[in-house]
Design a protein that fits this description.
By secondary structure, the chain is an alpha/beta fold. It is built from 17 helices and eleven strands. The protein has helices at 34-44, 73-78, 92-102, 116-120, 124-130, 155-161, 181-204, 214-221, 223-232, 267-276, 292-297, 299-310, 315-324, 335-339, 342-346, 387-393, 398-406, and strands at 25-29, 48-53, 82-86, 107-110, 135-140, 208-213, 249-253, 259-263, 328-331, 350-353, 360-363. The chain is elongated.
């Protein structure tokens, strides 16, 4: 089969290729997490992202907390590298400014309450009809139609509607995910939808609408329990950190107060665990433990044997013995331990991002482009920080900008 030749390596000392989205302009009327996190991915990859916010407080995620040196942790995480334009879209003059920006934009993203964008004439369908090259994204809670279209759709509510909470937690207590899983799922599908639509535009010359809902995104992530239930007839049970059909597979306390999670995937691994870690070679052949089916039937006894052995060891020693035996294992880290994780430090994953509160630590985005420019991790913007510069770039005079600010159209 014929294959294209591999590209020639860059000559020594040559500048790395630019970020893949350099030169693209994104305009976003966004709030909370789903749309902002999607557009942050675009900014990290080189796109110019203009974030349109309400003059009276801006994106309400700015006020969620003050944990990041006085700034909101959600906002810091999802909004680096953007320009903030504080603009009242309910005023015709504000809406006119938005359209001037859209006339030169490549991508538009919005996650206003259902129906709000259509009332303003800035839903994806309307904008793509007006600007044929524009890729326009509508991010919603439940999609544009159906009985749930106008329901409020906060992350925890969608986690419940999508069944995620029903499979997360202990047998006694269902719990929501500790991160905004529905928001993140929608954000990442919006991000990949933009990339796909831009590729299509490259061949057809036309942009087009992209539609993503939080429920659709999280329902897709529920694929394993969903198919297990639909085709097997039973919903997977909640097992905490344990696995429903594998044993041992759980987190066990160690002598120094930590917890170590281990996973035995087959009976050969159980034999190594019994001999090299538990100090019980007899259990490798004992019919009550020798097969995964037997260990799962007797899960309480299996867990007790493992817990007793690991409870005599410190976490470091437990991990060392497990790894020497070829048993998959991990520490049950806290968030603070993640921030100090040796793997992230060894791979130089941390950078500093500017913000109105000063430099803040932030992780490099997960998408690596070896040999290319490093992702652009720009500053977290203050509300309306770029308003004047953006309006001047559109040709407005100082007097016009002053009048708009006086009338509350901008901030």
């Amino acid at each position: 089969m014929d294959t294209d030749p591999a590209p020639a390596p860059a000559p020594p000392g040559a500048a790395p290729p630019p970020l893949p989205l350099a030169g693209l302009t994104v305009v976003a009327v966004e709030q909370a997490v789903s749309a902002p996190f999607a557009t942050r991915q675009l900014a990290d990859l080189g796109a110019r992202v203009i974030k349109v916010e309400r003059p009276d407080g801006g994106d309400f995620a700015r006020a969620y907390d003050t944990a990041a040196h006085g700034l909101a942790s959600h906002f810091v995480w999802a909004n680096r590298g953007k320009e903030s334009l504080a603009l009242d879209l309910k005023d015709p003059r504000g809406l006119e400014v938005l359209h001037e920006l859209l006339a030169g934009a490549d991508v538009f993203v919005q996650n206003l309450a259902q129906g709000a964008a259509a009332r303003l004439g800035i839903d994806a369908a309307a904008l793509c009809a007006r600007y044929p090259r524009l890729v326009a994204v509508d991010v919603s809670g439940y999609g544009p139609g159906g009985p749930y279209a106008h329901k409020r759709a906060y992350d925890m509510l969608v986690q419940c509607e999508a069944g995620l909470v029903s499979v997360t937690g202990t047998p006694e207590v269902p719990v929501k995910a500790g991160i905004p899983a529905a928001d993140i799922a929608a954000a990442m599908y919006a991000f990949s939808g933009v990339l796909a639509a831009l590729l299509r535009r490259g061949t057809t010359g036309r942009g087009g609408p992209v539609e993503v809902s939080m429920l659709d995104a999280l329902a897709e992530w529920m694929g394993h329990p969903l198919h297990h239930t639909m085709h097997g007839g039973e919903q997977p049970v909640r097992t905490g950190l344990a696995h429903a059909v594998i044993a041992p597979y759980d987190a066990y306390p160690t002598a120094d107060g930590d917890r170590v999670l281990l996973s035995v995937q087959n009976d050969r691994e159980w034999g190594r665990l019994a001999r090299q870690v538990l100090g019980r070679p007899d259990l490798a052949e004992d019919p009550a433990y020798a097969t995964n089916a037997a260990r799962t039937r007797g899960r309480e006894k299996t867990d007790a044997v493992v817990a007793e052995a690991l409870g005599r060891l410190g976490a470091d020693e437990a991990v060392r013995l497990l790894e020497a035996a070829g048993i998959a294992c991990a520490r049950l880290n806290s968030v603070a331990q993640l921030a100090a994780h040796p793997q992230l430090a060894a791979r130089d994953r941390w950078r500093q991002v500017d913000s109105p509160a000063g430099p803040l630590r932030a992780l490099l985005p997960p998408i690596g482009l070896p040999g290319g420019a490093e992702p652009r991790m720009g500053a977290v913007p203050a509300l309306g920080e770029h308003t004047d510069a953006l309006l001047r770039a559109l040709g407005m005079t100082g007097a016009q900008i002053t009048a708009l600010r006086r009338d509350g159209v901008i901030a």
